Amino acid sequence: FSRVYFVRHKKNPAHECMAKVEAHNEKKRTLGIEARVYLDCKGVCGFAELYDRFQTSDGSRVLVIQRLGTDLNRIRLSLPNQSLTQADALKLCLETFARIWSLHDRNWMHRDIKPSNFVVGLPQSEMDDQVFIIDFGLARQRQEKSRPTGACPILGTDAYRPISNYSRVEYQPKDDIESWFYMCHEFFNGALPWDKLPHSSTLDFKIHCRNWDVICCCLICLTRLTRS
């Protein structure tokens, strides 16, 4: 895993950035993947600007990127009753979906969609009301040839993990959307149905919640909110 530091430009101290540093002896190195995503999504709304990337004398990798604000999970937990208004929840659902769509449009899958991987711009900046998608360490380009079932590693965060990944089925863009759907439920309800269940029961509960009647009800509610 990489470490994140807040840094300032020597000649322009008012210019604050974030530096992600990955040690040379890190077993799983992911900053190279992150850099590729930022380069492929350069100039796209909701993606931080990559200012520089380099390798230190000891082999550590460094990414210098635009400094951003607080993640959506911390924002929600700081609110009364730890829940958003319906209007704010709907806005965040639409904005986060737009970011995932842009990522998929450039042939990348995030593979760890969750509220803490979306942040807002810095307070009192021109982008303070904009949502950004971050943390592409698990990202992967969509492949023409998929790996056989059982070859894909278990990825992401259990609460938001898509059902197919429990069986180690190759990740697809639809799996990012499934994780997004769980995230939307949390935005509207303040919690996930399986939050207080042991991890061993999470998969069974997700399968139960995939009941078509439940999905239709959720989609109807979202449609009504969008129209209003």
Automatic annotation (TrEMBL):
Describe the location of the Protein kinase domain by residue ranges. Answer: 1-228
Q: Name one Pfam family in it.
A: Pkinase
A single GO molecular function term of this UniProt record: protein kinase activity
Source organism, top-level taxon: Eukaryota
- Cite the PANTHER family for this sequence: CASEIN KINASE-RELATED (PTHR11909)
Q: What is this protein called?
A: Protein kinase domain-containing protein
UniProt source species: Meloidogyne enterolobii (Root-knot nematode worm)
